[in-house]
Amino acid sequence: MTPSIEPWLLSILVCPESRAPLVLEGDWLYSTDPKTRRRYAIVEGIPDLLIDESEVVSEQEFERVMALHAAPKVKE
Fold it and tell me: Over 60: is that where the pLDDT of 68 sits?
């Protein structure tokens, strides 16, 4: 089951290391900062935002997730 995080809560959560916004993907919150590329687990519906318990993802994984959450381009 995919965790549910209220949109208002997701809009104020940030990466504790870089202060970048987070995006929800599956059971993880991914930092949008390409330098740190951290992801944080959601444990029993609660975001675990401890840096020591986060994971650094590969560049490929980071790019994949960011592409999924990219804003759609508006045609002019």
Answer: yes
The rounded distance, in Å, linking the Cα atoms of 34 and 40 is 15
53 falls within a domain: yes
Handedness of CA 33, 36, 37, 43 (dihedral sign): negative
pLDDT of 73? 59
User: What is the C-alpha separation between 75 and 51, in angstroms, rounded?
Assistant: 39
Structure tokens at 11: 């809009």
Does residue 64 fall inside a structural domain? yes
- Structural domain contains residue 73: no
Mean pLDDT, rounded, for 30-46: 95
What pLDDT score does 35 carry? 97
- Domain of 59? 7-68
Q: In this structure, what CATH number is given to the domain that contains residue 19?
A: 2.20.25.10
Joined together, the tokens standing for residue 28 give 């993880």
